[in-house]
Amino acid sequence: MALACDKQPNGVANGDLLHLEQVNEAIEKYGRKKSSLIPILQRVQEIYHYLPEDILTYVGTVLEIPPATVFGVATFYAQFALEPKGKYVIRVCDGTACHVRRSMPVLKAIRDKLNLAEGMKTTRDGLFTVETVSCLGACGLAPVLMINDQVHGQMTPEAIEIILDEIMKREGGEQA
Amino acid sequence: MGKPENGRVDQKATIIVDGREVAIEGEPNLLEVIRKAGVELPTFCYHSELSAYGACRQCLVETEDGRILASCSTPVTPGMVIKTHTPRVQKIRRIALELLLANHDRECTTCSKSGACKLQDLSQRYNITDVRFGKRDEKIPLDLSSPAIVRNPNRCILCGDCVRVCQEVQGIGVLDFAFRGAKTVVTPAFGKDMADVECVNCGQCVAVCPTGALIVKSETEKAWEAIYDDSKVVIAQIAPAVRVSIGEIFGMNPGEISLGKLVTALRMLGFDKVFDTSFAADLTAIEETAEFIGRLQNKERLPQFTSCCPAWVTYAEQYHPELLPNLSSCRSPQQMFGSLAKRYYARELGIEPKDLFVVSIMPCTAKKFEAERPEFSNDGVRDVDLVLTTQEIGHMIKEKGIAFDELEDDSLDMPFGFTTGAGVIFGVTGGVAEAVLRSANYILTGEELPQVNFKEVRGLQGVREATVDVAGQEVRVCVTHTLARAKEIIRRVQEGEAHYDIIEVMACPGGCIGGGGQPGTQSPELRQKRAAGIYKADTSLQLRKAQENPLVAALYDKWLGDVGSDEAHEALHTEYVQRRRIKSEGIPVLTGQSTESKVDVEVCVGTCCYVRGSGQILGNLAKRLEESGYADRVNLRAAFCLENCAGAPSVRVGSKILGGLSPNKTEDVMEEIMESLKEKVGSE
């Protein structure tokens, strides 16, 4: 069995399995007005790691924005994901500076390590999502990548393997 | 053509267009002033009734100091000196056109919009003989899901007219732009099909689309099939608003009444009998007035909303389920006609209802949806078998090669061919309300009043209000058209800002005369002419009040009994259903991994259910399933409306809906799941 949203035992206990209370909190925090849409969507993405369709409809209904318009906003910005993402989102920079300092072998090492087949972005266990970005603005550290909000500079295939091992070990331990 | 002195220009508030002085008279933008000066600047994305968008770059002009402006989104400043056709403007316009064409499916010969397409028209007008940029190689699939509208994204030029009409005029917003840059598309939410979202099928998007990206779903083939099937008696009913617009397709003037020609044309096409929907509208007026008087006397379910407009009904079902008891239970004239035809007329002809093929000729795309509603079928036989819009019947007349404008008038068949003025004015906004007012006094007291015209409810202003004395009782009437305005009126009524007894709502601007299935590009002037045609038809009739229709009276005598009788109720009234706006699969909570058969369970977390603790039920259920070891045999989802709000909170197990639950009734749901699993195992 698999859960789409990451497991939160407390969520089950208090009935907020869908994190709807958290969505409502975000709506109240930013206000029921059209201009609050983007900060609310950012929070929704933090909660679910992507923007679930029904939550977008829900947010749109509350803010009185048609769902088609919410969808338009969600697809306009690259920061929003409409497909479920992993708990750890790895963004490998492939801007000019990173590319010439061999970012692609780092990417290949990650994909090999995570057994990601061609075209797949997220691992089957929902733990990792791997993406490339055009520039992270940290060219001095090239090649650079981010794991969620952590920046890792001067990467090599060997270094990233150690980092991934650590995460997998930690997650394996938690799950067991 | 010398330049006038500045002082003079300022005094009279004028601008210079192509060397000619033009007065500014409160126009909202430069484009309107230029068009007033007689220069037909091209546009795709400009409609006087929608907000200016400035995307198509066709309305460009050049100023004295060499600036290029999009005139639709430029305010007018006195003293402006502009030119509408210069080498630079011409070049930019042509390149913009060429780029639009490059992204456009240019199979014009098989496009139903060909001949009425703005893109085609402007390409010819600006002499585009070659498109240098190749073709778009990727074909996007068509959306054929809607009963009324076909969406072909390959023909979309991203002008956004449909987006704005749906948001601004109808207040819904079914369509919007999604994605960005070269990947931009206009699409319903989440890339879904039109039939799976909140579209009410009004067809206003079709009416504004400059190309063939949004078109009326053509069903003329079904009509030909029925006509050429000897086992079927094919009858037509003609809606009030069609008689003032069909002629436009054949070069006649808007508002010119061509009912007689249309009757002749339909006979030539092979229809066995030709009737008038206005006859059924007379019946609607009587039934709806009786219903209203009853409610007024009992002071219940007021204000009464009219229910003739299927787009409005769908809107109410989706957005205002709490108002459904207030809607008149009367079927629309189209469906009353269908019901009469299949119940009684088929019997009179001595044929089975399935062998009587009822075709409606309607100004409306939403009527196609209405005719499909399951409430309007008996034993799988639809009351109205086919709905053809004005555009489609025009197409059939052309296909048959009939010279419509030269036809002699012919008269309608009986018994459903006789109408009073009341039935005819249903075709224009305010008409249903006026028809009810013409009957109200008579139905309440049995006395006829001399007053026929109720001019205070007429006209094309957005909202009209009137207080009318009905046998000593004040009746507060409100009439509106477009759903954005209806939304605002509902808000005012619900917040206690406005008080009415009866509210007429028509979804399309101007009412049915401005319907989504009507020909041509709509404008306020066009609707004005068609409305005048309707009132002309009304006054030309000898009888003006529905209760005066002798054939309607005969119908009551012979078949229906009294007004509001059980038989009349069965044949002429209906019920409404709460409708979810967007189909969705919900959010997966548990996905069973078992290879054995599984049960689908949905917990509704829509507003009504959620506030009554459905979130808690969902949590409890997930926990119980895991504890009991059945989690792998269940697909548990959170759904955002099971359309059972009255019984909230609701859970669906397989195909069964359990209502009235509470968090401590989780075991009831578990039992149902066990039961369902047992059945599955049993059946395998």
Please specify the SSE layout and strand pairing.
The complex is a heterodimer of chains A (176) and B (684).
Chain A: H1 9-13, H2 20-30, H3 37-48, H4 53-63, H5 67-76, E1 88-93, H6 96-100, H7 103-113, E2 128-133, E3 145-147, E4 150-152, H8 157-175
Helix pairs in contact in A: 2-3, 3-4, 4-5, 7-8
Chain B: H1 6-12, E1 14-17, E2 20-23, H2 30-36, E3 60-63, E4 68-70, E5 81-83, H3 87-102, H4 118-125, E6 149-151, H5 161-169, E7 175-178, E8 185-188, H6 204-208, E9 214-216, H7 220-227, E10 233-238, H8 259-269, E11 273-276, H9 277-298, E12 304-305, H10 310-319, H11 333-349, E13 356-362, H12 366-372, E14 377-378, E15 381-382, E16 386-389, H13 390-400, H14 421-424, H15 431-445, E17 463-470, E18 473-481, H16 483-494, E19 502-506, H17 524-540, H18 550-560, H19 566-572, E20 587-591, E21 599-604, H20 607-611, H21 614-628, E22 634-639, E23 651-653, E24 656-658, H22 666-683
Parallel strand pairs in B: 1-5, 10-11, 10-13, 12-19, 13-16, 18-19, 21-22
Antiparallel strand pairs in B: 1-2, 3-4, 3-5, 6-9, 7-8, 14-15, 17-18, 20-22, 21-23, 23-24
Helix pairs in contact in B: 9-11, 9-15, 21-22
Radius of gyration of chain A: 18 Å
Mean pLDDT of chain B: 92
Oligomer: heterodimer
User: Could you spell the SSE succession of chain A in H and E letters?
Assistant: HHHHHEHHEEEH
Point out poorly predicted stretches of chain B: 6-10
